[in-house]
Design brief:
- This protein has two domains: about 70 residues, no CATH class; about 180 residues, Hypothetical protein af1432.
- It is globular, with a radius of gyration of 18 Å.
- It starts with a helix and ends with a helix.
- It has about 260 residues and is mostly helical.
């Protein structure tokens, strides 16, 4: 995680800092400042009057949402690589993460107790463990030249690597658990819905229309599906919710990209 993100996270957790302190840290990176203001003033988040400053943005959103937003903006840069061979894989991984993130945000809005901004961040980082594996692979010609082997390696290791990565970034326990359980389709969890449940369902929605064969279960076969929206979801209703939010989903993905 970039040093600035760590500094912003510490400032947000420090009760002795105020909104101006946090805003000044964000302003250290002009590109990050512009992206944060763009997201805050998007149609998905805008209030009655567009915000003019980062200080206003921090005051309106609150510290928790600011952290999620800053991390979401910074995470994109982690999916970049100077390897021409691996660049396409990184881009595909980022597109998938954006899609899962946008769907997660919409599903969270229909599930009491879930924060759409937190769900968006959860969607963005659910495959974070694949990044260090891909970056390491570029130095290993055998892996780069064997995409099937590389894909298997990532599939088998990304959960554990993702959990370790988020722990090293001081993410909370639930987010670390998310990286580890993001493809544990038949996970029971607890009676209460959590962000792992949101991301599991969002991923299966993201795979709709793709040629995935029988690699993934039907969406109503996984326990997580029956926890969302107070247990009132059906496959038809969940698709209807996403169709109605299609413009919002497109806008979120556009902003993230």
């Amino acid at each position: 995680m970039p040093d600035l993100a760590i500094r912003i996270g510490r400032a947000i957790d420090d009760p002795n800092t105020n909104n101006d302190d946090i805003a000044r840290l964000i302003q250290l990176d002009p590109a990050l400042s512009a992206r944060v203001m763009s997201v805050v003033n998007s149609a998905a988040l805008v209030g009655a009057v567009p915000l003019q400053s980062l200080q206003q943005a921090v005051a309106r959103l609150g510290r928790k949402q600011v952290r999620n937003l800053v991390y979401s903006c910074i995470v994109k840069d982690l999916f970049d690589t100077d390897s021409k061979i691996l660049k396409q894989q990184m881009q595909e991984l980022w597109r998938h993460s954006c899609q899962v993130a946008s769907i997660s945000a919409v599903l969270a809005r229909h599930t009491p107790g879930m924060d759409p901004d937190q769900a968006l961040l959860a969607g963005l980082i659910h495959d974070i463990g694949a990044i260090p594996l891909l970056q390491t692979a570029r130095a290993n010609a055998d892996l780069v030249d064997s995409p099937v082997v590389l894909e298997r390696l990532i599939s088998e290791m990304k959960a554990e690597v993702g959990q370790l990565t988020l722990k090293s970034w001081n993410f909370d326990e639930e987010m670390c658990r998310l990286a580890y359980r993001a493809e544990d389709w038949f996970r029971i969890g607890t009676a209460m819905v959590d962000y792992v449940d949101i991301v599991l369902v969002a991923q299966l929605h993201a795979f709709v229309g793709q040629d995935t064969g029988s690699r993934y279960p039907h969406i109503d076969e996984i326990p997580a599906f029956h926890k969302l929206a107070q247990g009132e979801l059906t496959p038809r209703r969940s698709i209807s919710i996403l169709e109605q939010a299609a413009n919002e989903i497109d806008e979120i993905q556009s902003l993230l990209r």
